[in-house]
Amino acid sequence: MDILGTSLRVCVGDLNAAIDVYERLTGAEAIRFQRGGVAVAAVGCFFLMSGPEAELSVLRKIAATIAVKDVDDALADLTAVGADIIAGPLPTPIGRNLVARHPDGSVFEYVDRNQGGEA
Questions:
Q1: What would the pLDDT profile of 32-80 be if each residue is shown by its tens digit?
Q2: Where is the VOC domain (predicted)?
Q3: Checking DSSP bridges between strand 107-112 and strand 95-101, what pairing results, if any?
């Protein structure tokens, strides 16, 4: 699998205030989107997330989001090393994703920007 980068997940109480801080720190402009009841802002290498605690508690279990060239390749490699695929692959607004638990217990989201995502 080709890993292109990693994004850190940060749960925040006030998304607008956090965006101001992270835009200043990274020099990047926030890209906002909604995932279920959670408002998300991608700022540089950070995913800022704010919403209902029930949804955030699930998202906190995922250590990081890993950008890959192709989720299908990631799926094959993860399966080969004995990872447990928790969810996906599923289409998202920007590509596809899957969530996997590595054999050591760590949980990661893998995402690509391949076609097949929802428009």
A1: 988 889 999 999 999 999 999 999 998 899 999 999 999 999 999 999 9
A2: 1-113
A3: antiparallel
User: How far apart are the C-alpha atoms of 52 and 44, rounded to whole Å?
Assistant: 24
Strands (DSSP E) contained in 1-119 are 3-11, 31-35, 38-43, 46-50, 64-68, 84-92, 95-101, 107-112
Q: Is CATH 3.10.180.10 correct for 3-112?
A: yes
Burial class of residue 49 (count of CB atoms within 10 Å of its CB; 0-12, 13-18, 19+): buried
Residue 21's closest CA among 37, 52, 43, 2? 43
pLDDT tens for 1-28 read: 899 998 999 999 999 999 999 999 999 9
Going from N- to C-terminal start, the domains of the chain cover: 3-112
